[in-house]
Design a protein that fits this description.
Helix content: 25-40%
Radius of gyration: 15 Å
Number of domains: 1
CATH superfamily: NagB/RpiA/CoA transferase-like
Structural class: alpha/beta
CATH class: Alpha Beta
Shape: globular
Distance between the termini: 24 Å
Order of helices and strands: HHHEHEEEEEEEHEEE
Strand content: 15-25%
Largest sheet: 6 strands, mixed
Bound molecules: adenosine-5'-diphosphate, magnesium ion
Length: 174
């Protein structure tokens, strides 16, 4: 299956799914993440600030930002630059309307990276939005545990992967 056809199919599935269902699934998925031993153990967690059509993370981030160190992606040109959401840092809308913390690039260790995606399969193959941002980012963190999170209709039997596609360690869905 062609990646671009699959992206179209997933976009159609997202559109067909009522907003309330996306919200309900998001809460359940984030509860599963919170209960995951790797999340519980992690002191420094990279999350992502969700767009309306992604597993919703904003409340989760608000809930956890005082209990763990939270790192969020910022988009700078072709790269994801990690930035820490410190107690004082505000959030501003960056490229692609993503909310980004106002802070310097974070260069320290990360214990767990939570990855969004258009689609995943159980083998950890991931389809992104088509620009390869996470492939270029994750290659820099080969030893960090990665967990992909997605709605039930985004977890497929098989996602096409190319050699540059970074494999995600584990997927959490419904
Ligand atoms: P996505 O992961 O967002 O679904 P793709 O996997 O289709 O997107 O990748 C999109 C493009 O990103 C690829 O065609 C490739 O040119 C580029 N890309 C991905 N990873 C790398 C990399 N490590 N180095 C250089 N270019 C890359
Ligand atoms: Mg890719």
């Amino acid at each position: 299956m062609d990646k671009s056809i699959l992206r179209k199919e997933i976009r159609a599935r997202k559109k067909a799914c009522p907003q309330e269902q996306l919200a309900t699934e998001s809460v359940q998925i984030m509860q599963k993440l919170a209960a995951h031993p790797d999340f519980q153990r992690a002191e420094i967690v990279m999350l992502y600030a969700s767009l309306p059509d992604e597993v919703q993370t904003l409340e989760f981030i608000a809930e956890w930002r005082n209990r763990k160190r939270i790192i969020l992606p910022t988009v700078v040109g072709d790269d994801i630059i990690p930035v820490e959401l410190t107690a004082g840092s505000g959030m501003v809308e960056g490229d692609f309307h993503i909310l980004e913390p106002e802070n310097n690039p974070y260069e320290g260790p990360i214990d767990l990276i939570v990855v969004p995606g258009m689609a995943f399969d159980r083998q950890g193959h991931r389809l992104g939005r088509g620009k390869g941002y996470y492939d270029r980012f994750l290659i820099k963190y080969p030893d960090v545990k990665t967990i992909g999170i997605c709605f039930s209709f985004q977890l497929l039997d098989e996602v096409p992967a190319e050699p540059h596609d970074q494999v995600i360690d584990e997927i959490i869905s419904l």
